[in-house]
Write a structure and sequence with these properties.
Largest sheet: 6 strands, parallel
Helix content: 25-40%
Strand content: 15-25%
CATH topology of the largest domain: Rossmann fold
Number of strands: 16
Amino acid sequence: MNKELQEIIKHFERLESSASKTVLATVVDVKGSSYRLPGARMLIGENGEIIGTVSGGCLEADVLERARRVLQTGVSEVFTYDTTAREASVFSLNMGCRGVIRILLERPNNDLIDFFRTIYTSGESGLAATLIEANRKNETAPGRRLLLNAGKPFTSDFPPHQIENILPECVSVLSEKHSKHLATDYGEFFLEYIAPPVSMIIFGAGFDALPLAELSKNLGWRLTLVDHRPAFADEKRFPQADKIIVSRPENAREYLTIDENTVAVVMTHNYEHDKKILGFLLNSKARYVGALGPKRRTENILRELQDAGENVSIEQLKNLYAPIGLDIGADTPESIALSIAAEIKSVLANRAGGFLRRREGSIYNRYAAG
């Protein structure tokens, strides 16, 4: 779950508590080139307040105008923007992107926001199956959904025959962790996989951890900070941390939940502490383990772990990144934090982290076509 959706949850609650109506705009389909991909969202308050974006700024003005009608009627609508024409685009502006974009406008209900909130708080993924367009013989309105949280019963406002038709595909998408479109006899659906926030653990609360903590939170990651020094592991120094654990390395694992959604950075600047932390991290399910310091230092740690009987397999070493960070010439705490965060992002996206100008094909990781 990205920061945009987290902000939408927070502001929806605030606006609704003040009796202010809202409209949620969601990109549900893209063909060709677009600044945002399916799943991008924008919350629009009746006072004109906007959270998020559905394009690079080209479509927002028109979306706001259309949102006024949805605010008044309460009826969900799907609008299509075709920017493939060379001479102009919507508003007679040259947008640069060449694509067909479909955007769903709806009055979000508490069930949908609760679904998002559950994903955020539980750390479990979810699946939202949204009807984009119904066939003529089907009177079901666009915007209806089936919501499925991992390990929980689904909820839906679809007729039973539609549920039977799409539920197996929904379960498959949730398992494969990959969004797709689905065309059936009943209509066209956007099956959206929604991952929980990345769980970021920083071991070490030194001064160089400050910019990394701030950057992690700006990316929407759930941040846990671990350090044995109370004066350093302090909420006043790290107000952005979701959780602060004051513990020695050998005891830290007792307070942590580490799964495939976890990334960890080891930057205690203490050799023995780093060795103990790496010893249990490399035997965990963490997706990414980064170690600050020279390559030889980490090699010595691994050798000492092996001599102590803590064998680390080749498969486990694939998740170790040391020296940590992308090679961008970082030489300050801020630029080092940037290189670390960029490397983590590239690993999570299964990308190499190279120059985009050398990449062939789309710059995006496309969802599977259904």
